Amino acid sequence: MRKLMAANWKMYKTSTEATATIEKLSTLLGGSAPAGREVLIFAPFTALEAAATAMRTFHNGSVGAQNMYPAEEGAFTGEISPAMIKSCGASWVLAGHSERRHLLGENDDFIGRKLRFALEKNLNVMLCVGETLEERERGELPIVLERQITLALAGVTAEALPHLALAYEPVWAIGTGRTAEMDDIQEAHSLLKSLVKKHFGKDCKVPILYGGSVKAENASAILALDNVDGVLVGGASLQAESFTKIVTA
Ligand code: PEP
Question: Which residues, judged by CB distance below 6 Å to any ligand atom, belong to the binding site of ligand 1?
Answer without folding.
Answer: 8, 10, 169, 174-175, 211-214, 232-236
